[in-house]
Design goal:
Chain lengths: ~200, ~200
């Protein structure tokens, strides 16, 4: 059994992460998803405890005080946090945990020293990103403009990531991510214990 | 287009590399294979220019003199060499080149600084490796013993490799290697040019 690790996926708004996550979980039963805490309001289709744990600002700040997050941040005026207990427990069990966080959060994960793979899901072009945000229609025009501005800034963080997956066709991007996870399981550094056993059994 | 790179696959004798290579090429049309030079005699089913370039010791040593190999070595009393021109040309064209070489050769490739991914194909157990070598029946008993001894030594080189692929079921090992190649195409370091263009197009 290879060691557990985090798979951190970030992308500028409208990158298509939601569809992608659902598809990955459909095929990969051995991956678990870390549900984040947030103070933002749920969108119509979002479910408490599945998409996010929706909490009040007071509840969130209490959890911060209790050091219950490996990282937390304010994005678009709302708080988002990643629960520590869930992640540490599952890494210790050898599991792979998918984390869907923004560039600031990813940087904090990197700094906290957990074993993690960083994937940046990028749009094939700027025009395509605009088109996708417009199509979503869950935000008003001002919100879309804010997200585009933010995407510009976020793309500049690409150096923090191990992999760039271009979201041209969603089916291809999913295949890329599934392959990255499978490849990462084969990493020598995650299988040292096993190979040492094989070698020591020899002599 | 991501940058070209080498995929170096090594394994102790009897690791099942031949089947594996054939299967990979069946599915991945954009990968090319670097055919090595050797002074050993062809096995019954082996084809000149496909499996190896079979040459005499004199021809081989002449190519060494002309620096036509990125690496060469003596294994089991025979010479093996990897042609330089073919590799450099194809990396420059953005291609992926599969190289099937032993641990000594892999270390030399590592030292020569070409962009390369190192995969070590390992048997699931020592007993299984013995069983596979016995089954092959292309070598005599002394040869098999020599190969087993050598495998013991080779396994100790595992730290030179980025990935360990366990050859339990060949179909699974092939899937692992195909995924490693696909994942490596997504590496940030191989796509810097593309992402820089995307970002510069924005501002």
């Amino acid at each position: 059994m290879s060691k557990g690790f985090l798979v951190v996926i970030s992308s500028p708004s409208g990158g298509g992460k939601t569809t992608l996550k659902e598809e990955i979980f459909k095929y990969e039963r051995d991956i678990c998803y870390s549900v984040s805490y947030t103070t933002r309001l749920p969108r119509q289709e979002e479910v408490q405890g599945k998409d996010y744990y929706f909490v009040s600002r007071e509840e969130f700040l209490q959890l911060v005080k209790e050091k219950k997050f490996v990282e937390w941040a304010e994005v678009h005026g709302n708080f988002y946090g990643t629960p520590r207990d869930f992640i540490e427990e599952n890494i210790n069990k050898g599991r792979i945990i998918l984390l869907d966080i923004d560039v600031q959060g990813a940087r904090k994960i990197k700094e906290c020293g957990l074993s993690a793979v960083f994937i940046f899901l990028v749009p094939p072009s700027w025009e395509e990103l605009e088109r996708r945000l417009m199509k979503r229609k869950t935000e008003n025009e001002l919100e879309i403009k804010k997200r585009l501005e933010r995407a510009k800034e976020e793309l500049k963080f690409y150096r923090d990531y191990d992999y760039l997956v271009v979201n041209r066709l969603i089916a291809e991007a999913i295949q890329d991510i599934r392959c990255i996870i499978r490849a990462e399981k084969c990493r020598r550094s995650r299988n040292e214990k096993w190979i040492k056993q094989l070698i020591s059994g020899l002599s």
